[in-house]
Amino acid sequence: MAPWPPKGLVPAMLWGLSLFLNLPGPIWLQPSPPPQSSPPPQPHPCHTCRGLVDSFNKGLERTIRDNFGGGNTAWEEENLSKYKDSETRLVEVLEGVCSKSDFECHRLLELSEELVESWWFHKQQEAPDLFQWLCSDSLKLCCPAGTFGPSCLPCPGGTERPCGGYGQCEGEGTRGGSGHCDCQAGYGGEACGQCGLGYFEAERNASHLVCSACFGPCARCSGPEESNCLQCKKGWALHHLKCVDIDECGTEGANCGADQFCVNTEGSYECRDCAKACLGCMGAGPGRCKKCSPGYQQMWMSVRQRCVRERTSSVKTPRAVIAASVPRATSRWKASV
């Protein structure tokens, strides 16, 4: 049971404040948790395996001139084994094959350590390429160059020149990907063997294709000149092999709001807001209004009408005062005569 508040205004207020401070704070008073950044994308297992093998090969190069370190190398190698193919060298290389922070490398090494040992002691002679033996043939994480997917299918354009040499085959060298060619700028087609939109064939032979850019607004062309256009980009019209800008503002092609006006640009148009004085307009400024906004009126200024703010007098003289003052002024004039 909560204690009764003490008597007196000040002690009671202090007692209430202490109770309030001891209550759990509302959500809006509690600090919000820091935003969580999305985790970095995990590398493809094939790339992890390739990195492991590359690091392993660097370890072999680093230890190529090492020995057992016992002082009598000739006796050790004659009675124990050659250091070059020894378990001692293998352990030394494996200890440094993964960096401390590379979790994926450590996980893959743990899964494949027995395979690496098998290759080291039994398979080196018949399969000298560790990457091919471990990553492709044994673990089936990778594919040969120029192939992709679970079955290692050839990339478009063939394994020798995937995507014609002008693009990247998605998933090449891995057991994933779609094999779709991501072509370089200017190239297109399934295997990047054609010129893309806005480019033309400047040179082609059995193994070589050069695509050069068309003149600005041309979508298809036969050469680089303005008069070589065969098809125009959106916002342009073909006229005698040249692309001419379409004035959308002069046609029904523009779609601007009621309080906007159209401005033609090369290949397109812009909608800009009317002046504040206008209710609808045909251009910029208060001189291009269709109608005036409330509080504005049309007045001739220079050679055209403009919508200007209405003027209102701050002091109004009553009509009765004006009428009463006229006779008195007249009588005074007669008296003076």
UniProtKB/TrEMBL annotation:
Q: Which UniProt keywords apply?
A: Calcium, Disulfide bond, EGF-like domain, Signal
Disulfide bonds, paired cysteine numbers: 183-192
The EGF-like domain is annotated at: 153-193
Q: What is a single molecular function from GO for this protein?
A: calcium ion binding
Q: Where is the signal peptide?
A: 1-29
Which InterPro entries is this protein grouped with? DUF3456 (IPR021852), EGF (IPR000742), EGF-like_Ca-bd_dom (IPR001881), EGF_Ca-bd_CS (IPR018097), Furin_repeat (IPR006212), Growth_fac_rcpt_cys_sf (IPR009030), LE_dom (IPR002049), NOTCH1_EGF-like (IPR049883)
Q: Which family does it belong to?
A: Belongs to the CRELD family.
**This chain belongs to which protein, by name?**
Cysteine rich with EGF like domains 1
| Organism of origin | Homo sapiens
